[in-house]
Amino acid sequence: MRIACLGGGPAGLYFAISMKLHDPAHEIVVLERNRPDDTFGWGVVLSDETLDNLAANDAVSAARIREHFAYWDDIAVVHDGVRTVSTGHGFCGIGRHRLLLLLQERARELGIELRFESDIPDTAIDELRREFDLVLAADGLNSRTRQRYAEHFQPDIDVRACKFVWLGTHQTFDDAFTFIFEKTEYGWVWAHAYQFDADTATFIVECSEATWQAFGFGEMSQQESIAVCERIFARHLGGHALMTNANHIRGSAWINFPRVLCARWSHDNVVLMGDAAATAHFSIGSGTKLALESAIALADYLHREPDMASAFARYEEERRTEVLRLQSAARNSTEWFEQVERYLDLDPVQFNYSLLTRSQRISHENLRLRDPEWLGSAERWFQARAGHAGSARAPMFAPFQLRDMALANRVVVSPMAQYKAVDGRPTDWHFVHYAERAKGGAGLVYTEMTCVSPEGRITPGCPGLYAPEHEAAWKRLCDFVHAETPAKLCAQIGHSGPKGSTQLGWQEMDAPLAEGNWPILAASAVAWSERNQVPKAMERADMDRVREEFVAAARMAERAGFDMLEVHAAHGYLLSSFITPLTNRRDDEYGGSLENRMRYPLEVIRAVRAAWPAHKPLAVRISANDWVGDKGVTPDEAVEIARLLQAAEVDIVDVSAGQTSTRAKPQYGRMFQTPFSDRIRNETGMATMAVGNIYQADHVNSILMAGRADLVCLARPHLADPYWTLHAAAGIQDRECEWPAPYRAGRDQLLRLAERGEGWM
């Protein structure tokens, strides 16, 4: 094949090398717009795994690269005057300039033609496509090739919020990858610093747009900008200067990071690689890793697949998964730094943990493998903050108190509809279901949404708190749980609103009944879907009646013996239908602004708080994101909703999302709703519960230790395993969980099996 590689960075050079190693007969030319010794970055970071992949592909260049690596194992975080160090992270760095020279040398040895100062205009790319069998577009972040064929590649470029500048220094950071956070007169500024050769380190300075504007960096020259950065970080630079190698750029050289995604990576005989195809934020240091490993993969596929089209298809299929995984981690990391000022008041221990786990690639137990000593000290700190000084248990087993309710741990059994009630009355099914989960070790067990009136039921199988027999059935459960377990019980009360009079969950969710439908209410006459009946827009008399139904249900819950009460104001039900503009079309004082839309829900919540005993906690569940952009409730509004709930003496907000409209487009994933809890907790100071695709003890501990929530709710795991909490404790060798006395023989066997690395099956 005759191959042209556009771009002489790591992607273009290493693809050329890999192709020559497969078949020396290939004619390959690398076209680079800059001179051979030009480079505008400083150091690059690779993992041991990537080094092993390079060695398997080309032992010669891998050995030369290894000779010039700087290795370090630690991460240091300097925050609030405290330097916190954790170990076991395994980094290695090399100067970008050195890496390019080594790859250039290897390319020449293999007979690859290198043409520097070859600036290929857009129009010349078409000619190259005709002249060469394959054109590799590794022409960087601002790829002309990607732009030339944009209708085929369909790029999606998201310019991120923070400003950063890429600098270097002769100050040594040879003992740790170091993050430094400095508070200035204009806001926080932080640095990412790491060594890449004997006497030089990368020093990336970053800050928010507001801080950047306040400093006036945009009007400064590079040297003026550097002088300000030297002043900010003077006590960390040890008298050394900061340096730039971007003198070709006018102005201060600060930029915003662009996240690049492309729908396709190939078009006819042109294929994208490296930053031209996808970018990964510098805070996880994986851009060069992606480029090198993609080069290895594509060269391999081109020699294994029957034709070029098949090789390109395989390349996209196989590499896209890895790229998207890294981009997901990079997005999490990017967003953490964009929102870092939310966390800078955290204790240095918790701040360090939050930083280390920001991308979700490092979990709680993974940190234990890396640095058990530091994690153990962090767990002791968490327990001490929870009033359990001297304990070294995992965060999920820290106590928690709301008003007079003391929980043994932070695990919550989420509300999960059972659809087994008869005329609103809980049955033996409910007694067994909730009793089993209370015996299973969770600190707090929720009932499913318990409706405040017959018309407020979601389905005919939903339980209620509106008749004496309902109260008696719930009291039987509360009495048993309090007598036999340490668990506490929370009654979640609500009204179905526009989603009422629908089928059982295992029939057709949210679809109207085939017969026997009852009239329904909502903020406005807006049907849940075209198939559902149009609700009556509530009048003042309806509002008064329903408010009193909530109050009556709260009083029944108190007499039944519940420890905590939650008002359901999420998921498109009645109170949620007022909060979201998707269903609230009112033109009176209950519609329009967020303040107006919250008016009636707050009337209900205040009335419930007044009826509910002052020593018992009150929670409210909200949908923090309608998943329809600015047309619905946004995470910004969710923070304001939480502030209004705080003012109404709500003790904790149960932070869910979505289910308010059929138009919603949720972004699913592990712990996908936890960021909303994180934001509310750390911007308002209000206690929160995290929910949504949380299913491992690792998830629970990571959320709690990072300060993203105070309690963690798990739903489906508790359907599959009522004893999830006890089993999770055994899995991490926690012996302090209280098991029911008749089950202790099972506990002992489970602990013995866990010690040997075995399970039940």
Summarize the structure.
With 761 residues, this protein is of the alpha/beta class. 39% of the residues lie in helices and 19% in strands. The strands form six sheets. Strands 5, 6, 10, 11, 12, 13, 14 and 15 form an eight-stranded mixed beta sheet that branches. Strands 20-21-23-26-27-28-29-30 form an eight-stranded parallel β-barrel, surrounded by seven helices.
Question: Your description of this structure?
Answer:
The chain is of the alpha/beta class and 761 residues long. It is 39% helix and 19% strand. Strands 5, 6, 10, 11, 12, 13, 14 and 15 form an eight-stranded mixed β-sheet that branches. Helix 11 (287-304) packs antiparallel against helix 12 and helix 16 packs parallel to helix 17. The mean pLDDT is 95.
Structural class of the helix and strand makeup? alpha/beta
Number of strands: 30
How big a fraction of the residues is strand? 15-25%
For the termini, the CA-CA separation is 54 Å
Main sheet: strands, sense, barrel: 8 strands, mixed
Evaluate the radius of gyration.
Answer: 30 Å
Q: Rough shape? A: elongated
**Average pLDDT, all residues:** 95
Topology:
Blueprint: E1 2-6, H1 10-22, E2 27-31, E3 43-46, H2 48-57, H3 59-67, E4 70-72, E5 75-79, E6 82-86, E7 91-95, H4 96-109, E8 113-115, H5 122-131, E9 134-137, H6 144-148, H7 150-153, E10 155-169, E11 177-184, E12 187-197, E13 200-207, H8 209-215, H9 222-232, H10 234-237, E14 242-243, E15 255-262, E16 266-267, E17 270-272, H11 287-304, H12 308-338, H13 348-356, H14 364-370, H15 372-385, E18 400-402, E19 405-407, E20 411-413, H16 428-439, E21 444-446, E22 450-451, H17 468-484, E23 488-494, E24 521-522, E25 536-537, H18 540-560, E26 564-569, H19 574-579, H20 594-597, H21 599-611, E27 618-623, H22 635-647, E28 652-656, H23 674-684, E29 687-690, H24 697-705, E30 711-714, H25 716-720, H26 724-731, H27 744-755
Parallel strand pairs: 1-2, 1-9, 2-8, 5-11, 9-17, 20-21, 20-30, 21-23, 22-23, 23-26, 24-25, 26-27, 27-28, 28-29, 29-30
Antiparallel strand pairs: 3-7, 4-7, 5-6, 10-13, 10-14, 10-15, 11-12, 12-13, 16-17, 18-19
Helix pairs in contact: 1-4, 1-11, 2-3, 2-11, 3-4, 11-12, 14-15, 16-17, 17-18, 18-21, 22-23, 26-27
Protein name: Bifunctional salicylyl-CoA 5-hydroxylase/oxidoreductase
InterPro entries: Aldolase_TIM, FAD-bd, FAD/NAD-bd_sf, OxRdtase_FMN_N, YqjM-like
